[in-house]
Automatic annotation (TrEMBL):
Region (Disordered) location: 371-390
Lineage: Bacteria, Bacillati, Cyanobacteriota, Cyanophyceae, Acaryochloridales
Recorded superkingdom: Bacteria
Name of this protein: Tll1152 protein
Domain Transposase putative helix-turn-helix: start-end pairs: 1-45
Residue ranges, compositional bias (Basic residues): 381-390
Amino acid sequence: MQKAFSYRFYPTTEQESLLRRTLGCVRLVYNRALAARTEAWYERKERLDYVQTSALLTQWKKQDDLQFLNEVSSVPLQQALRHLQSAFTNFFAGRAKYPNFKKKRNGGSAEFTKSAFRWKDGKVFLAKCNEPLNIRWSRRLPDGVEPSTVTIRLNPAGQWYISLRFDDPRDLTLQPVDPSVGLDVGMSSLITLSTGEKIANPKHFNRYYKRLRKAQRSLSRKQKGSRNWDKARLKVAKIHQKISDSRKDHLHQLTTRLIRENQTIVIESLAVKNMVKNRQLARSISDAGWGELVRQLEYKAQWYGRTLVKIDRWFPSSKRCGQCGHIVERLPLSVREWDCPKCGAHHDRDINAAGNILAVGHTVTVCGAGVRPDRHTSKGQLRRSRKSQK
């Protein structure tokens, strides 16, 4: 199974100088190739591919003003052209938008294949570097495994990371367990389990909001492009990185626990990109990290032999009574508890939804049945009950 482990590393002064030049050259080649392909299409209705942009790279290296391209490894430059080709392939297939130009302030990345790095005694030697990278090994690679690809990344906060891609021969399948669980994501509670447990939303952004606002206000007062502006920008980027790291760490702990304790996990397939278009809820939805939650559950279920079932996003999990199956016509977000008008059962909105998600997940797993039942009529919109108003 193909895996990639990411580590923080601390380059020497010479290594950092070479890596920054490499990232700059990768960014320049990518942007020039993107401009050439765009110009060829709009002016001559001609589509350039990887082979033609690779020939352009050979010509660029011969120009007097681009001689610095020969000072770095040629492999990351070729890989940048391959990534651009993949971006256009995804665009023409309708899976992504038109490729954008790379910006220096976003840091950047460079990919090294086996011909551009050396793996010796558990150390990584990059091309044109005599010393190994000082990597902080948070976890070791499996015994006898060598990375096939190395990716160097500089984030906007000025931190260096290395990603080692390798083929893992180990069988990490966990022992089968009986429990299955349905998950209903939310904002007040990050997730609600069908067992009735609610996992609180840490709201990482709110924890750093005051510091971030102060740093952004200071950045707005600086002259753009100045040294002080760059220092202030770095402070803002570091706060954003803290928020991102805190969110990922919490999600990793949560998803690992769910994978270990349950054989089958059922969750809704949410369109997060569409949901964040709501300006009132966009920040809270982004801070919750629902997309990252599902992504981690997907690959961890594959690693450890668990089953992840994603049901249709249009299934009325919250509106459906878990006792009799009656579906109410409308259920505003302000209604957190409600009584079924047909059987009189009292429901907690999130726990009822998680239970319905689990039930439908079992149905989909066993017989592949649809999850959009016929619409039921109701007497009207449910309003906030007295109990929920207290």
